[in-house]
Amino acid sequence: MGRVTIGTAGKVFSGEPGAWGNLGGKWGRSPICPTNRAPSPFSQGSIAGIIDHTLLSPTATPLDIEKLCAQAKEFSFAAVCVHPSYVRLASQALKGSQVKVVTVVGFPLGANSSLTKAIETEDALAQGADEIDMVIHLGQLKSGNSKEVFNEIYSLRKLTEGRILKVIIETALLKLEEKVRASLLAKEAGADFVKTSTGFALGGATVEDIRLIRNSVGQQMGIKASGGIKTCEFARTLVSAGATRIGTSSAIDIILQEAKL
């Protein structure tokens, strides 16, 4: 098996011991990944503890990010999700709190080269990111190049060892078989979560897709539902279907709705 060169400073990841190999058509799980476990859905009965308070608008300003972080601390959200350019600002704003900093890689199309995604990841971690939400290469998946998709995820898994890695599969653009295959590739490469959507495609999270992913990956892997989640009722329905994290730009509305229940 040829080497897959991903990363900077001459780093080469051979794919061993966890990359694609002659395993009877199956993908080998990376031994370096942390235990893939589905977090407890609710903290003290509130959905806030599993929400990634998200602001990925191209017009987001530094003041917007500071406000996002202040809200995340006030409502005890799991994390904020921001563009890579705002990771350092968010990390500084959240210093001393339990709120994590999430950023995106290969966003939103996933068509960046694997080297570009690796450099993005390394920089994000250096700036203070706790979690990485990467977008897979959808064209490679649709072409049946599962090896390429697997190796890219696995390479970022190695870079994010000890941190959380979520894999965005953009369910709205995939056929049923592709959703299953993408989810299994993420699982076998050692990712912590499968994430449904970027929020930039025509569709977002659905109950049916959450159930499909959960049935595909089992109970020990996280699932992040994202895209089009505007109400507390829908968020809780997605959790009931198997989601363990909610990504939304409507987090404040959701929490205010929850308070009225």
Structure description:
By secondary structure, the chain is α/β, with parallel strands linked by helices. It has a single domain (47-259), classed as Aldolase class I (TIM Barrel), CATH 3.20.20. The chain has nine helices and eight strands. Strands 1-2-3-4-5-6-7-8 form an eight-stranded parallel β-barrel, surrounded by seven helices. Helix 3 runs parallel beside helix 5 (146-159) and helix 6 (176-188) crosses helix 7. The longest helix has 14 residues, at 62-75. The termini are far apart.
Blueprint of the fold:
Layout: E1 51-55, H1 62-75, E2 79-82, H2 87-93, E3 100-105, H3 114-127, E4 131-135, H4 138-142, H5 146-159, E5 164-168, H6 176-188, E6 193-195, H7 207-217, E7 222-226, H8 232-241, E8 245-248, H9 251-259
Parallel strand pairs: 1-2, 1-8, 2-3, 3-4, 4-5, 5-6, 6-7, 7-8
Helix pairs in contact: 3-5, 5-6, 6-7
